[in-house]
Amino acid sequence: MIWLTWRQFRAQTVAAAGLLALLAIAFAVTGPQLAHLYDTTVATCHAQHDCQNAINAFQSRDSFLQSLVRLLMLAAPALIGIFWGAPLIAHELEAGTQRLAWVQSVTRFRWLAVKLGLAGLASMAAAGLLSLMVTWWSGPFDRIGAGRMDPSIFSERGIVPVGYAAFAFALGVTAGLLIRRTVPAMAATLAVFAAVVSGFAGKVRFHLIPPLHLTSPLNMSWVTQTGIGGPAGPNSLLVNITPNVPGAWIGSSSVTTAAGSTSLGPPPSGCGENSTYRACTAAIGRLHLRQVLVYQPGSRFWALQWYETAIYLALALALAGFCVWWVRRRVS
């Protein structure tokens, strides 16, 4: 049974191995150069008082490979579910070949367990190797700004891609088992996977660990516009906040008065059309504004990674258990 499953799955395995090998070569060539460039430009930019230009120049390096990496990390789990998971059972149910295996002393449980185990582990291994290489190669880029805690980057680093791959694969197998047609199962897998992952990232991930709250006096350099419109209506004070927690994931930010009100009211008298910036800053300072940030610190990166990965692995195991039950009780 293992040999037969390998025969059915070897084309996907060879294709994935070839792609990983090509990426490994590209990363091995460009990775050390990126690390050296970061150490000699961005890491020393404070001494030269030119950090923004150094960061912009560094982030433009290997832009094609950066775009390719992001595309691969976003698409890889979904592709695993579509092309590895969905056809695994659906194709056999369409052709009826599962009956040939069942009449040759191969139990339904063993037939499904071997397929799920061999292909599922291969899916997780491919995603894990891809994530490992990308995490290493992208390290210099991730030291800038919010870095790996950035919501758009978090899901492309560490171990969560392994969880995504396991869930996508199990979801594809489940869709193929229920729908019994390969192409519709592939479409259903993509739709459900995209909905679950995007919903989890937007609504659940930030709250896996209770976020921290930071309240401090408003840095006056962050007051960027006045007299344009704010919480109190037209011509009210508008204050824009720039997060001051480097490497952290800022969930929300707000400005309050000393009394706790979020309605800042009209601009103070020192912020008229002909006022100087210094006079307006002093007038705003007399309002005793405070900044409130709700954030996840960078030190929680691995804790959040493990929590999210565990959730997706649990979902994958639940789907695998459902598949076993369905094959033993419902499939003929």
Q: What is shown here, in short?
A:
With about 325 residues, the protein is mainly α.
Tally of individual domains: 2
Helix coverage percent of residues?
Answer: 55-70%
Strand arrangement, major sheet: 1-3-2
Radius of gyration: 26 Å
Low-confidence stretches are 223-235
Taking the alpha carbons of the first and last residues, their distance comes to: 19 Å
Q: Helix/strand/pairing class, anyone?
A: mainly alpha
How does the major sheet shape up? 3 strands, antiparallel
Total beta strand runs: 3
Q: What global shape is seen?
A: elongated
Mean pLDDT: 81
Write the layout of secondary structure elements.
Elements: H1 2-42, H2 45-48, H3 51-59, H4 63-95, H5 98-102, H6 108-137, H7 139-142, H8 151-154, H9 160-179, H10 182-203, E1 212-217, E2 249-256, H11 277-285, E3 290-296, H12 301-329
Helix pairs in contact: 1-3, 1-6, 4-6, 4-9, 4-10, 6-9, 6-12, 9-10, 9-12
Describe the structure.
This protein has twelve helices and three strands; from the N terminus they run ααααααααααββαβα. The chain is mostly helical and 332 residues long. It has a three-stranded antiparallel sheet, with no helix packed on it. α1 packs parallel to α6. It is elongated. It starts with a helix and ends with a helix.
